[in-house]
């Protein structure tokens, strides 16, 4: 389990994704953060992990001012220039680089044409039009924490500017070797604040997609993913195991996997008894399965909630009492007159292999904020809940180990929801669904929204209470979470271990030597 617990991060209403109206994401998020440490949903290209240590080293050597304001000017100019380099098209065969911070600004700037591009103005923290709104820039807002987790940078003693750590200095030196013909030009242009098209062409060696094949830079960046440093960190092994599992999957599929391929392939893996004492690789796979099981539970609850909101919105006054709303939704579920335990067994036996994938797709197809979950999709959500709880039975030890200590007030997970439903398993299935809808879904949302209103003065109610009735306000997007697998696959591609056809020779070598 995570070393310290954090309360759910309440999010703003109106987002198409990430709303988390039942505050169930945090335990799942904490789990996959441990499985891919040093990578986030917004760290999009691997070469930034070499570029920033190099940039910190250059600043220390050429400027050395410990004022954060001075550093921010240098850093933001360098990032803006890096964005211009990344999106510039040099010749007919050059490709548009994705995952570049500031790419929208850079594309607009280059499309204006001209003999020179001024990036100093857009890099100023108080500029009206900035390459990046966050004044901390890409380094401070996106990459610094992940670079620290990778062991590449650390907080300096006595001043506020990060410095490259021992591992970071190795990577910085390798990056310098890769761009050695143009490193002086890059620093000169940063100081000047303007760049010409010819200089952008000469600086194309900095592009994120141009890590030299067979270079020391490539070797060290690859070592961040699949191991190879002489002094491994505690977080290295977890990241390595996930990356190796992705390479194994690519080998099996004969192509570059998609995140969905990985989530479902690992979910379909049996969890062996005593997995907590098993090898790191086996435990990693079991934790990925646990992640997806817990995420499917959340999706089932959100599917039910979204249908409840749809029923509420369909009423003449867009309002119902809580009791009447629950009755309406339960009636649509068409549950049999058997107990929940019997319904759960029958549903699981009737589902094909990975039948929960069909349930998940039925919910996600109407997952957009404006999408409407129909009664048949509600039944898919109820079926998904039943099957997921059955599939979780052989993960009991791991569930309690990972989620049990979170408690059930602020956090809801497989641990808390299995207890709630198991205590009622002998009751009629319709009664259990009514209890889940009332206590674990609708009242849960009202509690979450009330807490955010109290602590953050943000009004996030999707349904609120007026004159003793629930009144519809808005809907939300019901989707699975993003566990950073797309970013991991991009990093493996950047490192030369994967391509569209699956494993590269270097990828096969890395897998064989693991």
Task: Describe this entry's structure for a reader.
The chain is mainly alpha-helical. The chain has 22 helices and 9 strands. The chain has helices spanning 25-35, 48-62, 68-87, 103-111, 120-123, 137-149, 166-178, 183-192, 197-202, 216-226, 236-253, 259-267, 280-314, 322-333, 340-350, 355-365, 375-391, 396-403, 414-422, 429-456, 485-494, 505-513; strands at 117-118, 153-154, 163-164, 194-195, 319-320, 463-466, 469-472, 498-499, 502-503. The strands form 4 sheets. Strands 5-7-6 form a 3-stranded antiparallel sheet. It has a two-stranded antiparallel ribbon with strand order 1-4. Helix 11 (236-253) packs across helix 13 (280-314) and helix 13 packs antiparallel against helix 17. The model is unreliable at 1-18 (pLDDT under 50).
Structure, briefly:
This protein is mainly alpha-helical.
User: How many individual helices?
Assistant: 22
Beta percentage is under 5%
> What's the overall average pLDDT, rounded?
91
The count of strands amounts to 9
Poorly predicted spans: 1-18
Main beta sheet: 3 strands, antiparallel
- How would you describe the shape? globular
What spatial order of strands do you see in the largest sheet?
5-7-6
* Helix/strand/pairing category: mainly alpha
The percent of residues in helical segments reads 55-70%
**How far apart lie the N and C ends?**
26 Å
